[in-house]
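Hey,
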Amino acid sequence: KQGYEIAGFVWVQGFNDMVSRGVYPTLPKDASGNRFATYSELMAHFIRDVRNVLDAPKMPIVIGVMGVGGKDVNEGNLECRKAMAAPAALPEFKGNVVAVPTSPFGDEPLAAIQAKYDKVRQMAYLLRTENKNAANADGSMSKEQQRDYLRKHEAELVSPEEVALRARGASNAGYHYLGCAKTFARMEKAFAEAILEMRDEQTKASETESPAP
């Protein structure tokens, strides 16, 4: 009965779009451009549609640019991030759409620990497939022997302190930002600040356009 005001809208894309080759096929080797260019077009349509449905033509919108993998990622990941951020640069969205990178908010100590566990999983695969560069190259290791080998391998890579830190700070996989609450809190703070800044600028612009008599 009191009514409401939509303060802003945040969109954070998931990991699966980046690996969806059906939607974003790999370009030929001699082709130029960003294979995720269609994402930019779809995101722009999405912004227009959401504003239309909510009847909020200038609603501040934050695009949370995917930060999975942190700062050191491959070219495909970087291309996807560029495509996600691109709509914010369109003239029609100036001052009311902002792209906020999320890669700086990852927990680096947790990511380093996760990289070690990834090596353990890789070793498990090498043992299971009798890789020529692993200890089970001749296929003589039983499953129990492989498990023992992996336990020792993990103990050599990951310290007890790191095990405890991971148990306390992570609850999911790397493609979900390790489920780290600190990471999400940092992201959400940045999103909120971006929305507040856009709203402040919109208020100032409105006051300038309609000066008090």
